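Quick one - first record:
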Amino acid sequence: MAQKKMYLTGGIGAIKQWEGFGIDCFLPSGTDEGGCYSETCASIGVMMLAERLLQIDLDAKYADIMELCFYNAGSIGMLDDGSKFTYANQLASSDTDLSRRADWFKCACCPPNVARLLGYIGGHLWTSSSDEKKNTAEINVHTYASAVLSIPVGRHTVQLEQKTDWPWDGNIQFELKSLEAITTTIRLRIPGWAKDRTISPEFDRYASKVTKGYLTLPPEYLKTNLSFQLNITLKPRFISPHPYTNQNIIALARGPIIYCVEDFDNPWSLVLDTECEITETDVNSAEPYKELTVRDGATLLKVPESSGPYLAHNKNNFAKVDI
């Protein structure tokens, strides 16, 4: 499913008629091409499946998809102020379907599903276990957000706090509160798209390595470093589709966020040079975010192209959108 039937936003279910899959790699960008239904509820279902798979197989490929769905095909389902919603989520607007947000739907399964997702999102951040007899605790951090986890170990408690502005900033600060007698192990997910990451204080002498996408911080390290930080470099990158999709396009991403362009800010026909300069701008809104501006490196574009997060598109509700 993830390799042949999923959109780069984490959306699934290309066919509108039965809200389901087509043949392998049939992933049109708009509904006028016969696909890209990508219902909000479907991506939330993928998140729920990924969370359960993580409980039986600690592999970051599931957490990568869970996070991708949350920040893109899932979160797009509700505007940041909670006033408007989407049902189907095209990658590109069509002449007959402008991807407008609605106040409500006759069949309103998606809005309450988004609300429910936000209510239990803490359960997707991490999994944990403890053993009172052995006096041990283990924490697997799947994604990053400012939050606190408390684990009972007998009559005592192990607490781990995250402080971060993820997904816009790749710096995550951790504070562990644990009795020295409790042996604690923490595993941090390193996203598959991440090229550079650092841990401080430095811990190379502990010979820890990344296993299935998780970096293990052993008890020996944590006993002397209750405060530590992970920094994952967030750089804009281009993503191209599988050639079997026959989609001659390219997309722009930064961290787990997929970006899109709107004709409100740009001409509808755009050509990108993947070697071009990309600049980042902080945008202050109800949910501050990073805007990316692409400048041509080979005079392919006459003007800079401005792009914003896919999850926040069409606030004006009259713009065409394209990834």
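second record:
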Amino acid sequence: MYLAESGNLENNENLRMKYFPNSLTKNAFTWFTTLPPNSIHSWTQLERVFHEQFYMGQTKISLKELASVKRKNQESVDDYLNRFPLLKARCFTQVSEHELVEMAAGGLDYSIRKKLDTQYFRDMSQLADRVRQIE
């Protein structure tokens, strides 16, 4: 993603390395700032350690797999609903926020789904609020 957005930096390894931290947020930025000084010497090395840290062999998932995700026993509603954007990032099929919410609702226990059946939720936050009220 970074390379696709970096355009003119594509052929300049030093500039790619220089501007890479500007593309990072949250956990990725924290990870990067805690790397030992002078521990990265090339773009290839930076790319490799970044992928080792953040991709850990996680592969692409299908829309069918995303739609079949279920809430785990003892999993909080927030943890369950926070998993969806992470899983969605590994699914390259376009899915609207509303469709993602419907998939997430589909993975809830039947007793909860039954109470949500006729309701419309525009985003995960709204769904989470309603599920918390029910539980």
